[in-house]
Design a protein that fits this description.
474 residues, alpha/beta, two-stranded parallel ribbon, 21 helices, 11% strand, globular
């Protein structure tokens, strides 16, 4: 996985972006997620922020403060911990705020007064990323919860920059994704949709949902689109920027090459490859995947955050900045994932056979034949485990991978072109020192080098998961 101390943020002097975040008080939602953890780590390691407030919900009887302690003990923070002789006081900058988004007032009155007076920068990273979640639940998390947050943020006297993390696919019903918000939600908008649903039975909701989604593939993309429209209508007077990343994959360099902590995306579909098994996925091999490493994604977010304070102009005082963090120039194609990922296999034999372990095809028949063979192998393997008195896990892994792929295959079967003028402007305005600090130019990313750490990163995440839960995960 590489040397944990290899990544530092040394520079000859503070950069303009560092100056923007110096002594800032940052509020983050979604800090327990994949992107959120990398954002916290980067802020602590490279920027002299004064404080980081995390809005955290209690989970499974674990309080917010205890969840924060668990997060800060994770390997992603080892670099910061090892390079800081006073790590305990350093991590005290991060403060958990007990949050309940089911209530109108999401935090206590005392916490609210502190945040209203102190916060200068906001990153709204929270989201429900379950693709096929019920549309009401997706709208509640991705729209209503964000609205409650921004109602509070609107009263913050010191706030200078607000970044709302959306998705590149919030308008995936279009073949060309522009840097603007499209208010073409059917049924009169999301408020009307929720109102209509409140009068329907469950089976009626299920029947109506396909008509509401229209050409949108799932409730996730639809609800993220609704969130953008909500922000445009209600909060365009605030210094908010809409940041749209595409498929976010494991880290390239920071803080640990190959680091990943979940298997919801491409990493999950590559689990069979890491275990020496064959897998066949549905997709168009020649289409661009629009993938970005998570450390690049966070670096771009931070750059946009520093730039968004200047996004308003005299003639466009209420126009939100929209930033498509994607490119058509330098990206991997879906059919290349298996071959490229195999370069990270441990042995020469593994690297050779690994190139054929993950196939991407548009043929339903070919894939179905493979699935039957895949399931048969899993059943046989589990029978052998049962005879040996061990825990059966192969069929469970197969079902999880298949469910993940079924939810994501829309994105591998379609292709989009991207307008990214705003994102290119941000990159172009960075100083040389800023570019060293915030590396996110996808057009210059060395994918061959990136994939050296891809498979080892997935294996390390599986090992951590097994250690934490006492059983294998995935």
């Amino acid at each position: 996985m590489g040397d944990l101390n290899m990544i530092a943020c040394d520079s000859t002097g503070p950069t303009s972006v560092q100056n923007f975040y110096k002594d800032s008080v940052v509020l983050i939602t979604g800090g327990t997620g994949f992107i959120g953890k990398v954002l916290i780590e980067k802020l602590l390691r490279c920027f002299e922020v004064k404080k980081i407030y995390l809005l955290l919900r209690g989970k499974k009887n674990v309080k917010a403060q205890d969840r924060l302690k668990e997060i800060l003990r994770e390997p992603i923070f080892h670099v910061t911990r090892n390079n800081n002789p006073t790590a305990a006081s350093f991590f005290s900058k991060v403060v958990a705020i007990d949050t309940n988004f089911e209530q109108d007032e999401i935090i206590s009155e005392d916490d609210r007064e502190v945040l209203l007076a102190e916060v200068t920068v906001v990153f709204n990273v929270m989201a429900s990323v379950k693709f096929n979640e019920h549309i009401e639940s997706a709208l509640d998390t991705n729209v209503n919860c964000s609205q409650k947050l921004f109602d509070m943020v609107a009263k913050m006297s010191q706030v200078r920059s607000i970044i709302h993390v959306s998705t590149f696919y919030s308008n995936c019903d279009r073949s060309h994704i522009e840097e603007q918000i499209f208010d073409d939600i059917p049924f009169g908008g999301y408020d009307n949709i929720l109102q209509i649903f409140s009068h329907l039975k469950e089976h009626e909701k299920d029947q109506l949902t396909p008509f509401i989604l229209g050409r949108m593939p799932n409730s996730y993309t639809f609800s993220k689109k609704c969130a953008e429209v909500m922000i445009q209508k209600r909060y365009s007077h605030l210094p908010i920027a809409i940041f749209r990343p595409p498929v976010v994959i494991s880290a390239y360099q920071e803080p640990i090459p190959g680091w990943v902590d979940n298997f919801n995306g491409v990493a999950g579909m590559c689990i069979p490859l890491t275990q020496g098994k064959l897998y066949c996925a549905r997709g168009e091999p020649g289409f661009l995947s629009h993938s970005v490493p998570v450390d690049y994604c966070v670096a771009a977010m931070l750059a946009v955050g520093a730039e968004s304070r200047n996004q308003r102009s005299a003639d466009r005082p209420t126009t939100l900045g929209v930033y498509n963090y994607a490119t058509d120039a330098n990206n991997i194609r879906w059919g290349e994932y298996g071959r490229r990922a195999a370069t990270g296999c441990e042995t020469q034999l593994g690297r050779f056979f690994g190139r054929f372990a993950l196939e991407v095809t548009t043929s339903r028949i070919r894939r179905q034949l493979f699935i039957w063979w895949f399931i048969f192998q899993a059943i046989v393997a589990d029978l052998l485990l049962m005879i040996a008195g061990k825990k059966q896990r192969n069929l469970r892994m197969v079902k999880r991978v298949l469910a993940l792929e079924e939810a994501a295959c829309f994105f591998a079967l379609n292709q989009w072109t991207v307008q990214n003028d705003n994102m290119r402007r941000v990159l172009g305005e960075l100083t040389e020192e800023d570019r060293k600090l915030l590396e996110f130019d996808i057009d210059k990313l060395d994918w061959k080098d990136y994939f050296r750490h891809f498979v080892p990163g997935i294996k390390a995440a599986l090992a951590r998961c097994a250690l934490r839960r006492g059983k294998e995960c995935g």
